Amino acid sequence: MSAGLDRARQLDRDDPLARFRDEFWIPPHGDGGEQLYFCGHSLGLQPRRLEDAVAEELQAWKTLGVEGHLSKAPTPGFTITNSCANRWPNSPGHGPPRWWP
User: Fold this and answer.
1) How far, in Å, are 9, 82, 96 from residue 85 at the CA level?
2) N or C end of the chain: smaller count of CB under 10 Å?
3) Domain limits, the chain
4) Mean pLDDT computed over 66-77
5) Residue 93 gets which letter from DSSP?
6) d(CA 7, CA 33)
7) Residue 100 in 3-state DSSP?
């Protein structure tokens, strides 16, 4: 084994983010092994929890309609928008929505 490969494996073992690896779907390669993923201009690998999170939002939209944007949904969009806006008070467009009573 080459010194470069040994070093790469050591870096993998020491990587503090390695614990998150199993939280993503890694597509199989044609030979049955895991695909290597080096695409910098993409959404990246799909998080395993994404499908359930999207299904929850779609269910809220289906059953609550516009109320899903307000206070009745598990993650109401209006609350998320306000939370983000309050974190960046000097950002363009910051302030209370004009349509909100």
Assistant:
1) 42, 5, 9
2) C
3) 1-47, 50-87
4) 71
5) T
6) 21
7) coil
Determine contact, residues 76/84, Cβ cutoff 8 Å. no
Q: Which residue has the higher pLDDT, 44 or 17?
A: 17
pTM: 0.59
Q: Determine the Cα angle at 50 with ends 64 and 8, to 5°.
A: 165
Residue pair 22/28 in contact by the 8 Å Cβ criterion: no
Indicate the pLDDT class of residue 48, thresholds 50, 70 and 90: very high
Phi and psi angles of residue 34, each rounded to the nearest 5 degrees, phi first: -80, 140
Query: How far is 4 from 99, CA to CA, in rounded Å?
Result: 59
Q: Which two tokens stand for residue 1?
A: 């084994």
Q: At which residue do the structure tokens 């080459």 appear?
A: 2
